[in-house]
Amino acid sequence: MFWTIPFFVLGGISLYLGAEALVRGASRIAHALNVDPLLIGITVVGFGTSLPETIVSVVASLEKRPTVAVGNVIGSNIANIGLILGLTAAVPAPRRLVKREVLCMLAATAVFYLLSWRGRLDRIDGLLLLGGLVWFTASVARWTLRESTVAAEVRREAFREYRRRFDLARDLAITLAGILALVLGGGLLVRAVVALARTTGVSELALSTTIVAVGGSLPELATSVVATRHQHSELLLGNLVGSNVFNILGAMGAAALFRPLALHVSPLSLEFLALLVFSAALPLLMWREEKVSRIEGTWLLAGYCIFIVLLFAR
Predict the structure, then answer these.
(1) pLDDT tens string 51-71
(2) What does the pLDDT look like over 135-191, one tens digit per residue?
């Protein structure tokens, strides 16, 4: 018990700083190419800020803690919509995001839910999920670049300017340092959850769905707050949608690929039902006015708080 709190703190700090370094190094290169902010938000930022969840789930899988791996992903996706979008509501959403990327998020959630009825994810399922991630990334890049008004020559000139002003080796080193910090933080956090569950009697699933998931979502929260302040709606929403897709297809796919997962979470459990409700609520809230209003954001926050209460009260 003595080491539980230090492991939690060090693991959370390592995850946060690692994600910050990763996003900073990768996004600087991406911005140099003058690509669409939506593409940066979904891929570089969204996928980058989801690496804490991926690392935690993979480490948990390797250490034969499948409940931690699954609870981490489910809780993170719920927190991204209920907590983070609830806090940063009233940001306009481009309709193309609602029609395409959000619907892809719903499809990924549905596939994950259907697979959960088998009670396990094997390596074939992991390959299926990772293949879906590759398709999603390629499709978003194709959709975005097709609609981009920036000519290829302008992109090449921007990259030449980047090479004159910045150090590519330094940015790659920052990115690598971020990945190493994420691996360290993920291992510390998984050990802390196991120790805390044994000491307090609270289930690993409840702790993973709440504390670990929110801790892993801190990069998304920080990115969303900054994007809201600067009114970068495409970056904000792309970050959340891309993160949710990556959590399911990337984190679960990689965890199952390393070691088949026995899902000790019923498809009819509170966790899975909450995931379906929050995921389905996102396009419904955005479709009419292309944004989530402050009142709707308040409802999302209230729903998230009710979910937490029910989770620990059962």
Answers:
(1) 777 877 888 888 888 888 888
(2) 998 888 787 767 555 555 555 565 566 555 566 677 777 777 776 776 677 667 666
Tokens standing for residue 28? 């600087």
Could you give the CA distance from residue 34 to residue 36 in angstroms, rounded to a whole number? 7
Please state, as a whole number, how many other Cβ atoms lie within 10 Å of the Cβ of residue 265. 18
Domains annotated for the chain, with CATH where assigned, are 4-313 (1.20.1420.30)
Q: Which H or E element spans position 244?
A: helix 233-245
Cβ-proximal residues to 51 (8 Å cutoff; 6+ apart), any chain:
18, 19, 22, 178, 179, 182
The pLDDT value recorded for residue 133 is 92
Residues 107, 113: Cα–Cα separation, whole Å:
10
- pTM summary value: 0.76
Query: Mean pLDDT, the chain, as a whole number?
Result: 77
Task: Specify the 3-state DSSP secondary structure of 291.
Answer: strand
Q: Which long-range contacts (CB under 8 A, 24 or more apart) does 191-199 make?
A: 191/7, 191/11, 192/3, 192/4, 192/5, 192/7, 192/8, 192/11, 193/65, 193/68, 194/65, 194/68, 195/1, 195/3, 195/4, 195/7, 196/4, 196/8, 199/1, 199/4
